[in-house]
Amino acid sequence: MHSIIIQWLLAGAVAAVATGKARRQDGPIDPGTAADCTYWETALDTSYTCVYYQDIWGISAAELLDSNPGVKADCSGIKVGNAHCAVENDNCDKIVRAYSTFIFANFQLWNSDVKPDCSGLWNTDDPASHNHNYDAAGLDVQLERTYANPARGNLWM
């Protein structure tokens, strides 16, 4: 049973890498792209359109355009090979949809500070805290701000 869980987690990690989704930007970006972007996706071919980014990442057209000024309202400006800011401000629903390899109950199990209403994901008492990891199916993912228990660290080393 343990090996099945490990295989499932590895499959999720491979899927994230194979799709071009990355925590760090791995392709060129347009000037003015959001500096505080937490998640990037490189357009691997012409199927990466505005609708693709909106559907996969659960973001609005306005969020996509605000974070990626090189992308125009008619969706021109998405360049194959370029990294585009896909998620500027994470929430539980966006995180689960972005990975598509686990459900919220798993995410909450891996991150004990996250409550059923997603409170606890951000530590709003300390706006200066940033770049802390949370667990998502064993993948190392960064938030713009730390969650409520920074001493806990990453469970999946």
From TrEMBL:
This is LysM domain-containing protein. It comes from the Eukaryota. Keywords: Signal. It comes from Diaporthe ampelina. Residues 1-16 form the signal peptide.
